[in-house]
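Quick one, T. Sequence first:
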Amino acid sequence: AQQLTQKECDILTFFISNPNILLKREDILLQVWNDDGYFVGRSLDVFISKLRKYLKTDRSVQITNVHGLGYKLEVKTS
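Structure tokens:
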């Protein structure tokens, strides 16, 4: 089992609450970091990359990048 950090958990929770919906980068940052100045440019991409690694064994879920806009948690229903 993979232990998620608090931020990874916060991001994943936000995605799970909004399946198959494009989430803008700004919205993810506001939701997870509350725009508190802590956030540094590429950190979100690093978190997304880690979450993708955790999810890669499950073919029914995938985090996709919508270039210039944000990310989407694509959930395939059988």
